[in-house]
Design a protein that fits this description.
By secondary structure, the protein is of the alpha+beta class. The protein has helices at 42-52, 143-152, 168-173; strands at 9-11, 27-30, 56-61, 75-81, 83-88, 94-99, 103-106, 112-117, 122-127. It has one domain: Jelly Rolls (Sandwich), CATH 2.60.120. It is globular and about 45 Å long.
Length: 176
C-alpha cells in the first residue's frame, strides 16, 4: 500500500574518461515512489521493500560528498528523510534533487556524489545478491579494468521496488 506505481525516468550517463558509468544500463529515477507515513520508520519501509525484492546488504546513512562508483555491483538508494542534490555520472554528469520517497537505481559503474543535503537526510541503500561491494574513486582503478568489471555484473533478477514484474529488467536489457 505504500508503494506507488510510477514509470521511472531513464537517464543515460556516458563515460567521461574518468568515471566509466554504465555503457548499457541507464540510471533509473523513481520520483515519489514510496509513501512514507508519519507513524512508520521510513528507513525500515525501504529496507523491507528492497529485501522483499532480493536487494539486500542494506545500510542507513547519507551520500558521500566525494565522487565514487561501484564497478562490481548495482546499487539502489531510497530517500527516507530529507533531500539532497546529487551529481550522477561524474564531473560531466547530471545533478538531480532527490526528496523523501524518491528511489534511484544506479547500474554498476555509475559515478555519484552529494552536492548538498538537508540536515535531516537519511538514505537507505541496498544491492542485488550478485556482485561484490567496493567503493572506488576514479583515480583508484585503471579505467579499462573498471569497464571490464562493469560488463561482468549481471542484470538483477528483480526491480528493487516492483519486483520481477517491474520495469528494471525490461529497461536495462533493451539497451544496446
Amino acid at each position: 500500500m505504500l508503494v506507488r506505481t510510477h514509470t521511472p525516468t531513464a537517464i543515460a550517463l556516458h563515460d567521461d574518461g574518468q568515471t566509466p558509468n554504465n555503457p548499457k544500463c541507464p540510471l533509473l529515477l523513481y520520483r515519489d515512489a514510496v509513501s512514507l507515513g508519519k507513524d512508520l520508520d521510513p528507513a525500515a519501509i525501504f529496507e523491507k521493500l528492497f529485501a522483499a525484492n532480493g536487494w539486500g546488504r542494506s545500510w542507513r546513512n547519507g551520500i558521500y560528498d566525494f565522487l565514487h562508483f561501484h564497478a562490481r555491483s548495482h546499487e539502489v538508494l531510497g530517500i527516507a528523510r530529507g533531500s539532497a542534490r546529487v551529481q550522477f555520472g561524474g564531473l560531466k554528469g547530471e545533478t538531480l534533487t532527490l526528496e523523501a520517497g524518491d528511489v534511484v537505481v544506479l547500474p554498476a559503474g555509475t559515478g555519484h556524489q552529494r552536492v548538498t543535503a538537508s540536515k535531516d537526510l537519511l538514505v537507505v541503500g541496498a544491492y542485488p545478491p550478485d556482485g561484490s561491494y567496493e567503493e572506488t574513486r576514479p583515480h583508484e582503478i585503471d579505467h579499462a579494468e573498471a569497464r571490464r568489471h562493469i560488463a561482468e555484473v549481471p542484470l538483477p533478477a528483480a526491480d528493487p521496488i516492483y519486483g520481477s514484474d517491474g520495469p528494471l529488467r525490461r529497461l536495462w536489457s533493451s539497451q544496446p
